[in-house]
TrEMBL record:
Top-level taxon: Bacteria
Segments for region (Disordered): 1-21, 47-69
Biased composition (Low complexity): 53-69
Protein name: DUF3558 domain-containing protein
TM spans (from-to): 20-45
UniProtKB keywords: Membrane, Transmembrane, Transmembrane helix
Length: 269
């Protein structure tokens, strides 16, 4: 894992955890939508239906196989589950963001979203820290709240949080969060936006590029983080990187995930 003193990121302002750690579902989003909005149950990573299953981390190899049955979904079709997030993104695209990665799979259990994270640590690429996490939250109807409505609320919370940051830098616990851009992505899912941000603190800084997509009753999120260590490991000082080369790749990963999810027969009603 990355150095424990890596600078906090934007998500840390909500849950206090280091951004480089693999996060669970964003509790603030869930609470803000409705107490009755819950993520859909994920199928086992081996493709079988049923209860939650744990899967070990995989290092430098594909995490799972893509769903066998694919066909375009009719408009309005709702999703019920996501067996595995890793196959939703082309491995070549993931490697452009995190070269020679370790892969961490997170099945959707205990109310969490399903996710896949590719992390490239300084041990394989000295002086570089790169990570991209793709998550899918599927919302089902509960307590009179429709799944699509709950997903829309979760998306709006993400959008408002990114928009609020557009007012200028903020400081929390000694870390400065500096928004770089927030823009809509028409034509991607039902709604989508992309944002970029840099964080700097006592031990250096990092850059975040994020795309969030609303797709019917699901929210797809692609979150990239990167920093450079000019002095090389194990130095504790990192610097933010230029987000420009990574923005189109993060958007490509989001488009791949949305396309694959839309065509996944086993993921929908």
């Amino acid at each position: 894992m990355p150095p424990p003193d890596a600078p906090a990121a934007r998500g840390s302002r909500r849950d206090g955890r280091a951004r480089w750690a693999v996060p669970a579902a964003t509790s603030a989003v869930t609470a803000a939508v409705t107490a009755g909005a819950v993520f859909g149950t994920a199928a086992a990573l081996d493709g079988r239906d049923g209860g939650p299953h744990r899967a070990p981390s995989a290092a430098g190899r594909p995490a799972a196989t893509a769903p066998a049955a694919t066909a375009p979904a009719a408009p309005g079709t709702l999703f019920t589950k996501v067996a595995s997030v890793c196959p939703l993104v082309d491995p070549a695209t993931a490697r452009r963001l995190a070269p020679d990665p370790e892969i961490e799979m997170t099945p959707a259990e205990s109310g969490a979203e399903a996710a896949c994270e590719w992390s490239s640590q300084a041990r394989s690429h000295p002086g570089q820290l790169r990570s991209v996490r793709v998550s899918v939250g599927v919302y089902t109807a509960a307590d009179g709240v429709a799944g699509a409505q709950a997903a829309r609320g979760a998306y709006e919370v993400e959008s408002e949080t990114a928009g609020d940051a557009g007012g200028g830098p903020t400081v929390q616990d000694g870390t400065t969060f500096r928004p770089l851009s927030v823009r809509r992505l028409p034509g991607l899912g039902d709604k989508a936006f992309a944002s970029a941000e840099q964080q700097t603190g006592r031990y250096g800084g990092t850059t975040s590029v994020t795309v969030v997509v609303l797709l019917r009753n699901a929210v797809v999120k692609v979150a990239f983080q990167g920093s450079d260590n000019p002095r090389g490991a194990p130095s504790t000082t990192t610097v933010p990187i230029d987000p420009a080369p990574f923005r189109p790749v993060v958007e490509q990963a989001a488009r791949e995930a949305v396309t694959a999810l839309t065509r996944c027969v086993d993921c929908r009603i």
